[in-house]
User: Fold this.
Amino acid sequence: MKKILCTLMLCGLTLIVKSQNASVEKSTFGIQTGVLGMWAYNEVRLSNTIALRTELGFDFGIWETTFYDDYDAPFLLTPVIVVEPRFYHNLKKRSNNSKRIDGNSGNFIALKMSYHPDWFVLFNTDNAPIVSDFSIIPTYGIRRNLGKHFNYEAGLGAGFSHTFAERAGYDKNKSEIELNMHLRIGYRF
Assistant:
């Protein structure tokens, strides 16, 4: 009787272990760099498929807009704060196909909300005035792992941007459509 009971318990444990849900990680932290900046990020699990990504970093850019007409297309490095809920929609499928999901490796749909504050700007050789902005951009992207700690990420989206130009001494604020295209490589701790 003891042997039968032990065998049934072992089979039951095997079924429980096999039926674990594919899920985003409880918390993951890393750094990323790309053509247009460098960032430190943290993703915290909200549910099995949703993570909240927070990000601090610097965006590179060459700004040539109506706000910078009097300046020679300034090259700027500006701080950025990002809050981005991400829905990883294919984790279960990747897990069932024996593909990696560690470090939240999968396809995602995100709502990127970013703010460029007017605190400071690096490499502002023309002393162009700092114009802060806020954007909300729905984005579709992928993240894949390269080894144990390295990953790459790509995303594409279009959304809304509002520039707070009056704060910098211009006549009026400006709202427009903004694109989010990113290609990054990173290191996860």
